[in-house]
Every structure is written in structure tokens, then in C-alpha cells.
Amino acid sequence: MRHRMKRNKLNRYASHRNALLRNLAKEIIEHSSIMTTTVKAKVGRQYIEKLIAKAIKAYKIKESNRAESVALRRQIFAELGDRRLVNKLVDEIAPKFVERNGGYLRVVKVGPRRGDGAEMAVLQLVSE
């Protein structure tokens, strides 16, 4: 049965797709805005918003439950593989979104790419 199998595979095998999403997440955390194709932006948004949700949870419970906060940081580290980016995500980016219930990223369509006509978009953190 194919229950709950709906996912855009981006015409890549699993390890390539995971590396792509990991790299998109690293660039968003580091630069807060990137230009990519619209399809990659939409798939990357789902991936990155889950990481931000974990970071917000880790930030909220930092004082009360230290062990769970460390566990969440380790889960984020398992996805990103860079401790500096994990600290930036939890300590700098997460506090901006504590009051927000999702929708941490926006996809703004830019138009076709000049070389091959692929639909391009800017994926950026929402800053209110």
C-alpha cells in the first residue's frame, strides 16, 4: 500500500535529496534568504520549518528542562551537522518566532531563470 507516500522527490535519489535539503537549510540559517527554483523552495520550506519548530521548543524550555533542550539541539545537529548553525538557530532565530504559530518562511516567486526558463523563487525568513 502507498499510504502517506506523497512527497516531491525532486528527481533525485534519497541521499542526494537529503543533502540538497540539508544544504538549503544551512544557507537559510546562515544568510536568511536564498534564491532557488520554486519547487526546491517549497520542499525546503517544509523541511526548514520543522527544524525551526524544534529550535523554538528548545529555546522555550532552555531554563526549565535542560536535558530536553539538549536533546532537541542534538536532533537539530543530526540534521545540519554544524554546531555553529545549531546555536545560531536556537539562540538568535528562534526567539524571533516564539510568538508565531508556524509560517516562519515565505516563498516569493521571481520569474523564469534566463538560462533554462526554470521558475525561480526567493526563500526567506519572515521578519515582522
Task: Characterise the protein shown here.
By secondary structure, the chain is of the alpha+beta class. The chain has one domain (about 15-125): 50s Ribosomal Protein L17, Chain: A, CATH 3.90.1030. It is about 50% helix and about 15% strand. The chain has four helices and three strands, in the order αβαααββ. The chain has helices spanning about 15-30, 40-60, 65-80, 85-95, and strands spanning about 35, 105-110, 120-125. A three-stranded antiparallel sheet has the order 1-3-2. β2 (about 105-110) and β3 (about 120-125) form a beta hairpin. α2 packs across α4 (about 85-95). It is globular. Pfam families: Ribosomal_L17 (PF01196). This is Large ribosomal subunit protein bL17.
Q: Count the beta strands.
A: 3
Taken in chain order, the helices and strands follow as: HEHHHEE
Overall mean pLDDT stands at 94
Question: What portion of residues is helical?
Answer: 40-55%
State the strand order across the main sheet: 1-3-2
Strand content: 15-25%
Low-confidence stretches: none
Basic shape? globular
Q: What count of helical segments does DSSP give?
A: 4
Level-2 CATH architecture:
Alpha-Beta Complex
Class per helix and strand makeup:
alpha+beta
The CATH C-level name is Alpha Beta
Q: Kindly give the count of domains.
A: 1
Largest sheet entry: 3 strands, antiparallel
**What is the name of the CATH superfamily?**
Ribosomal protein L17
CATH topology: 50s Ribosomal Protein L17, Chain: A
Our measurement of the CA-to-CA distance between the termini, rounded to an integer number of angstroms, reads 43 Å
Compute the gyration radius: what is it? 16 Å
